[in-house]
Amino acid sequence: MELPRRFLPPMHMLRAFETAARLGSFTAAATELNVTQSAVSRQIRLLEDLLGANLFMRVRQSVALTEAGEIYASEIREALRRIGSATLGFKANPQGGTLKLAILPTFGTRWLAPRLPHFMAANPGINLNLVTRLLPFDFDLEPLDAAIHYGQPDWPGAEMDFLLPETVVPACSRALRARHELLRPEDLLRAPLLHLVSRPDAWERWFSTHGVADAVVHGMLLDQFALMTQAAVAGLGVALLPSFLAEDEFRRGDLVAAIDAPCHTQADGYYLACPVDRTWYPPLQALRAWLQQECKPGFEGSR
């Protein structure tokens, strides 16, 4: 629904207000905006007249935001940031569209990045920007078009495209496996275990799947698969790693299976999360179609 024009203050008023709110001073705002202090004061007064309420408390020579002014400043700052981001994206690629994708770090570097040249070649008009996010976020608060997600398809306000299942394997260095004489699942309880912060119950689930009930596990905590992989290579412990994200280490022999006991995830998986009000966006539609093709069983794509 289109907002009435009376609810859209002129940009120069909003810029004056946001700058003064951020700096806490009309004078400092005037310096940053390269205008006079009286011009800033006048623009803010006009904005207050339009809103029908004061945004600042004026005491002698100082100003301070009202409670409502603080809330308004935060929302206006985010709106201006989104406008700036959209303008930057357009200037970077005026012939196509900019696609901003949040990725999981190791999935992005190990699985997605090697395949992206294929996507870029097929979609030369799309400018792709990547940022890392470990946990779900609010699409209304972050100017992102989509995100790679691992877990359940339960991201509020998003459509979820299933991409890939996952098989995790207990992996360690060859020396650590020999030192702890690892043969059966319960033997891993004697070895140091590496834990991923975002999957705190992964080892308990793995032991339960392989018939070890009520396992009490301890060990080092790490926040990314890449770091946990290197810790396992260094012999610091046994890591539960997605097999397709550690292919290089297994191929080189830097890692071996601690025991032959993979675990196939049932409910969890990798998904593309798309905000429901953004699914019309052509670059996002192109990405969704390409990912679905890349993730088809048996499809090798650009690899």
From TrEMBL:
Pfam name, any one: HTH_1
GO MF entry, a single one: DNA-binding transcription factor activity
Domain HTH lysR-type: 9-66
SUPFAM superfamilies: Periplasmic binding protein-like II (SSF53850), Winged helix' DNA-binding domain (SSF46785)
Keyword annotations from UniProtKB, A to Z: DNA-binding, Transcription, Transcription regulation
Gene3D superfamilies in the record: Periplasmic binding protein-like II, Winged helix-like DNA-binding domain superfamily/Winged helix DNA-binding domain
Superkingdom classification of source: Bacteria
GO biological process terms held by the UniProt record: DNA-templated transcription
Family membership: Belongs to the LysR transcriptional regulatory family.
This protein's name: LysR family transcriptional regulator
Organism field: Alcaligenes xylosoxydans xylosoxydans (Achromobacter xylosoxidans)
Lineage summary: Bacteria, Pseudomonadati, Pseudomonadota, Betaproteobacteria, Burkholderiales
